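Fold Annotation — chain and its backbone

Fields — amino acid sequence, structure tokens

___
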Amino acid sequence: MDTETHAPSVAATGDRPPRTLIASDRVVGAEVRRPDGSKVGRIERLMLDKASGRVAYVVMSFGGFLGLGEDYYTLPWAVLTYDTSMDAYSVDITEEQLRNAPARSPEGGDPQDEREWEEHVHRYYNAAPYWGI
């Protein structure tokens, strides 16, 4: 999946095409919803590949109340799509699939020495790895 397709569209004015870029601070805190509109969680952190500049994955909070008791999960960027009708990122995942997914700390961690873990996450979500795109 091409990372540029994940940014929300801005209504075109005149002959100008819709914008496809978004600032990272607008992604952090964005809601993640299922295609039916039900809330899954909130994006807490973007993890970028330093060499390519690509978004590798997001750390998403899930569950809890007012920040207490939340779990954190890493989702490959490739599994998220931006849904303009919901003004949220969309992922087709059940609550059971999410609860069984590899958990993560809210900080996300530095993936530098964690390629095996990253491969596991991408296999779990059946997502193409960002390093092979």
